[in-house]
Design goal:
- 33% of the residues lie in helices and 23% in strands.
- By secondary structure, the protein is α/β, with parallel strands linked by helices.
- The chain has a 6-stranded mixed β-sheet, with helices on both faces. It has a 3-stranded antiparallel β-sheet with strand order 2-1-4, covered by helices on one side.
- α5 links the parallel β6 and β7.
- The longest helix has 16 residues.
- The protein binds adenosine-5'-triphosphate.
- Adenosine-5'-triphosphate (ATP) binds next to α1.
- It is a peripheral membrane protein.
- Its main location: membrane.
- This is Phosphate ABC transporter ATP-binding protein.
């Protein structure tokens, strides 16, 4: 049963009458990486939290491929992932416990995942002692083990150095290749050009554009998107 196409129709989130999401219309297919761009406060994080059920919309329709909402098939990773005060191995297998996976199988799956994300030699270390980049890789491995159909990433590389960013991007691509649909926010426009299949441009709680990555950066349809690209992209993107 697929969560896709995922359709949002006139989705509003208006806490205390303030229009944070202001009539979002959006259709997402089940493949590829969709990057959500937009200025600070545009509502990008709120949109992701709405998609995974953390924020109930004030009004509007969210249709997950005609299926009822099923949070078990949706994963989310935040800019600062939560780490239990326990080992890297226990942290990476956390999502398997509620699924009834026994301890031995959890360990085997966890160790295999740590190999994939380059943390096998840290399995017995305290997860909270990992660097920011390592913690983000661990958070991605943890959610990857639960085989989500939809993975939401909220600025996962915002506070990382370039080599840690590259490691995270490699894992994100592998998760996509493994079949998950990825929706991700970033302020790093270079990253958007490296990872995205399509771009959703959000401003003042509205989807202003939804275009291919090439289309968005070479021929932005709105003045707002043009200004956004010019203001935050200090280099020429050559497609
Ligand atoms: N749970 C919430 N309840 C009420 N208001 C919220 C909630 N979460 C966020 N907001 C408000 O919604 C607005 C949009 O916030 P959001 O975090 O989605 O912006 P953003 O586009 O992700 O910005 P940034 O790029 O700075 O992270 C902000 O004014 C924020 O204070």
């Amino acid at each position: 049963m697929s969560l896709f196409p995922l359709r949002l129709q006139q989705v509003h989130f208006s806490p205390n009458g303030r229009h944070v999401l202001d009539g979002v219309d959006l259709t997402l297919t089940g493949d590829g990486i969709t990057i959500v761009l937009g200025p600070n406060g545009a509502g990008k994080s709120v949109l992701l939290r709405t998609l995974c059920g953390l924020i109930p919309p004030s009004s509007g329709v969210l249709d997950y491929g005609g299926q009822p909402f099923d949070g078990a098939r949706i994963g989310m990773v935040f800019q600062h992932p939560m780490m239990l005060r326990s080992s890297v191995l226990e942290n990476v297998t956390l999502g398997l416990r509620p699924r009834g996976v026994g301890r031995r199988e959890r360990e085997a799956c966890g160790l295999a995942m740590l190999e994939r994300i380059g943390l096998a030699d840290r399995a017995r270390d305290n997860a909270r002692r990992l660097s920011g980049g390592e913690q983000q890789r661990l958070a991605l491995g943890r959610v990857w083990l639960t085989r989500p159909q939809l993975l939401l990433l909220d600025e996962p590389t915002a506070s990382l150095d370039p080599s840690a960013v590259e490691a995270v991007e490699t894992i994100v691509r592998e998760i996509r290749t493994d079949g998950a649909k990825i929706v991700m926010t970033t302020h790093n426009l270079g990253q958007a050009t490296r990872l995205a299949d399509d771009i959703v441009f959000l401003a003042e709680g509205k989807v202003r554009e939804h275009a291919s990555v090439r289309g968005f950066f070479t021929q932005p349809a709105s003045e707002e998107a043009k200004r956004f690209i010019e203001g935050e992209l200090p280099w020429h993107v050559a497609f």
